[in-house]
Design brief:
Layout lengths: L11 H6 L5 E2 L12 H6 L1 H6 L11 E4 L2 E4 L2 E2 L4 E2 L7 H5 L2 E5 L4 E6 L3 H6 L3 H15 L1 H9 L14 E7 L3
Antiparallel strand pairs: 1-3, 2-3, 4-5, 6-7, 7-8
Length: 170
C-alpha cells in the first residue's frame, strides 16, 4: 500500500512556535489523534511496548503543568517524539477529515493561528486544491478507506471548522 505523504501547509518554524496542537482540555478529548490501521501498523513496536492507546485507539495524554498533552509531545521544545511516524491525523492537521452520516468532509481547523492568518490568501487556496487532487487519487483513497475507523464526526464543533469539500464515498 502507498504511504500517505503530504506537503505540509504549516511550516515547521511556525508550528514549533505555536503551543496549540497536541494539547487538550480533557484527558479524553476527541481532538487527540485516533490511530487507523496504517498508523497502528507503523507504530506497532511502540504500541505493544507501552500503554499508549485507549480502547478506541486514541493516543492517551499525560498531564504536564495542569494541561493534558499528547504523550509523544516533548513540552520543553514542542517537538513530536514520533514525528517521522506520526499518525495520519497529525500529518493532515490543521486540515481534518470528519465522518458524518452522509459523507467524509474535509475541514480546516479555525483554531490554528496559521489557518487564521492565511485562509484568505492564495497559499490556502492552492493547498485546498492540492488536497482535492490528492484525495481523488486511487492510491490515497485506498489508504483513507483502510483508515476510515479513525475518522471522528466533528460536526458538533462546527464553529471551529471551515468546510472545504466532501470526498466521494470511500
Amino acid at each position: 500500500m502507498t504511504e500517505l505523504s503530504l506537503k505540509q501547509f504549516v511550516s515547521s518554524e511556525a508550528c514549533l512556535k505555536c503551543k496549540g496542537c497536541c494539547r487538550y482540555k480533557e484527558e479524553s478529548s476527541v481532538w487527540r489523534p485516533k490511530l487507523g490501521a496504517v498508523d497502528q501498523e507503523a507504530l506497532a513496536d511502540l504500541i505493544t511496548a507501552g500503554d499508549f492507546l485507549d480502547a478506541q485507539a486514541y493516543i492517551k495524554t499525560i498531564q504536564v503543568h495542569g494541561e493534558h498533552i499528547c504523550r509523544f509531545l516533548d513540552a520543553s521544545n514542542n517537538k513530536c517524539g514520533i514525528y517521522i511516524n506520526r499518525p495520519l491525523e497529525c500529518v493532515l492537521y490543521p486540515f481534518i477529515l470528519s465522518q458524518t452520516s452522509d459523507a467524509v468532509k474535509v475541514y480546516a481547523h479555525l483554531s490554528c493561528p496559521y489557518v487564521q492568518d492565511h485562509m484568505s490568501g492564495t497559499e490556502f487556496e492552492t493547498y485546498v486544491a492540492y488536497l482535492k487532487e490528492l484525495f481523488s487519487r486511487k492510491d490515497i483513497r485506498e489508504i483513507l478507506s483502510v483508515n476510515k475507523d479513525m475518522f471522528h464526526d466533528y460536526t458538533s464543533f462546527a464553529p471551529e471548522l471551515l468546510h472545504l469539500f466532501d470526498l466521494a464515498p470511500l
